[in-house]
Design goal:
The chain has about 425 residues and is an alpha+beta fold. It folds into 3 domains: about 10-220, Tetratricopeptide repeat domain (Serine Threonine Protein Phosphatase 5, Tetratricopeptide repeat, Alpha Horseshoe), CATH 1.25.40; about 230-295, no CATH class; about 305-415. It has helices at about 10-15, 40-60, 65-85, 85-90, 95-110, 130-135, 140-155, 160-175, 180-190, 195-210, 215-230, 235-245, 250-260, 270-280, 290-295; strands at about 120-125, 305-310, 325-330, 340-345, 350-355, 370-380, 390-400, 405-410, 410-415. Strands 4-3-6-7-9 form a 5-stranded antiparallel beta sheet, with no helix packed on it. The radius of gyration is 23 Å and the shape is globular.
């Protein structure tokens, strides 16, 4: 089962995990924003830009239909216009105030289109230094935290603002502050009830706050969402991950087969889900999209040579048929593998080469990073999720520029 739970730390990553990335924070010129001296307004605008960028990229990727995009855009536009008390802060006429909001509604999505998505996911925050070099005026991580906390303070005096809680929860997800995201989505769920989008956001935040486990409350929310919206792509993806954690790979394949039919034909997302299904032991798809996956090449030329061995002290605790996962992770952000291969204990000691063709999604691959963490894990259950009793070895910081073989000794036990 060449599948690891990843977040996704965000709803967008999990709904279209193969190609959707979180927006980089940048500053874009919007004429009307410059005239607003109030910090709260600036916070609302920046958070709205963030969410609008997500919506646009999700729509372009095929994860949202046109009607779903239009509905969510209209809701966000309404929320922004409600939040911006332009008349009380700017000496203009009522008609000019309405004109300013209209300009914002046009300019923000145009600016949002320039935002770039780069995963986790959500490693936008981990790229703060790179962003600062590219745009010295871009808000820092501290600025973003301050803006989000400002929204949290506002909600203390307005606890029935459902849209505000959703926005706050999404923001905490992006900042990888998952316990706080759980609290925010719990409030949104309290106010909005059994709405699939909210339940799924709540479920994934609970999972990240609970060592990536989808069991318990998360499972309940996912199952409710699937019952309400059987073709919800995020529900199908999370439902499949839940089946994996419940040791039901056939159930996972069944849900992901349905997800495959809903994705745009030939899209990166569809190719990725087909690859996941194949790795789970599902029947191979012989159509054009699968052929392209099979023929994928390591065009970047980036690879890491890895040598894996098992310490003699642990030899007696494994069986020849136990699964060995060898993979690379980003140093910060989501723990989704950048490249992963599956072997057996009988293959040890072994040498492998990790490269971009082994990535689980196009945007999260080795060539996008200068340094990575290397891991090798022996799983008795064959489950891609780490379990207590699994054996583990790792190298904490490896430079991709180092072409020498990197030796991992499996000498630890997962607690």
């Amino acid at each position: 089962m060449n599948i690891l739970f990843f977040s996704i730390a965000s709803f967008l990553v999990l709904i279209a995990f193969a190609f959707i990335l979180p927006p980089l924070w940048r500053r874009y010129p919007v004429a009307t924003v410059a005239n607003l001296p109030d910090d709260q307004d600036q916070r609302n605008i920046l958070i709205a830009r963030h969410r609008l960028a997500e919506l646009k990229e999700q729509h372009q990727a095929g994860a949202l239909t046109q009607s779903q995009y239009d509905e969510q855009f209209a809701e966000l536009e309404l929320a922004l216009s409600d939040d911006l008390d332009i008349i009380s802060h700017v000496a203009v006429s009522r008609s000019e105030g309405r004109w300013a909001v209209t300009v914002l509604a046009v300019m923000i999505p145009l600016a949002a289109g320039l935002l770039y998505f780069t995963l986790g996911n959500i490693p936008a925050i981990s790229h703060t230094e790179e962003l600062a070099k590219a745009d010295p005026e871009a808000p820092s991580a501290a600025d973003i935290n301050k803006m989000v906390e400002g929204l949290a303070e506002r909600l203390k005096s307005n606890p029935d603002d459902a849209k505000g809680w959703v926005m706050l929860g999404r923001s905490y997800q992006q900042l990888e502050q998952f316990p706080k995201a759980v609290d925010a989505f719990a409030n949104a769920y309290r106010l909005l009830g059994d709405k699939a989008e909210i339940m799924l956001l709540y479920a994934e935040s609970l999972a990240f706050a609970n060592n990536q486990s989808l069991l318990g409350k998360s499972a309940e929310l996912i199952e409710k969402s699937l019952a309400l919206e059987p073709e919800n792509m995020n529900a199908l993806w999370l439902g499949g991950l839940l089946k994996v954690q419940q040791n039901n790979p056939q159930g996972a394949v069944q849900l992901w087969r349905k997800l495959e039919t809903l994705l745009p034909p030939g899209s990166d997302a569809q190719k990725q889900i087909q690859g996941v299904i194949a790795d789970m032991g599902g029947p191979a798809n012989t159509g054009p999209a699968q052929s392209e996956v099979t023929k994928s090449e390591n065009t970047s030329g980036v690879n890491i040579a890895v040598e894996v061995s098992l310490t003699p002290e642990l030899q007696k605790s494994v069986n020849p048929g136990d699964t060995v996962f060898i993979y690379a992770q980003a140093l910060t952000g989501p723990k989704m593998p950048l490249a992963i291969v599956r072997k057996q204990v009988s293959d040890l000691p072994l040498s492998v080469s990790l490269d971009d063709t082994m990535a689980m999604m196009p945007a999260m691959k080795l060539s996008n990073f200068s340094q990575v963490k290397l891991l090798a894990r022996i799983s008795k259950s064959g489950n891609a999720m780490a379990q207590p009793g699994d054996l583990l070895g790792s190298l904490e910081q490896v430079a991709l520029s180092d072409s020498r073989p990197h030796k991992i000794i499996i000498n630890g036990v997962v607690k």
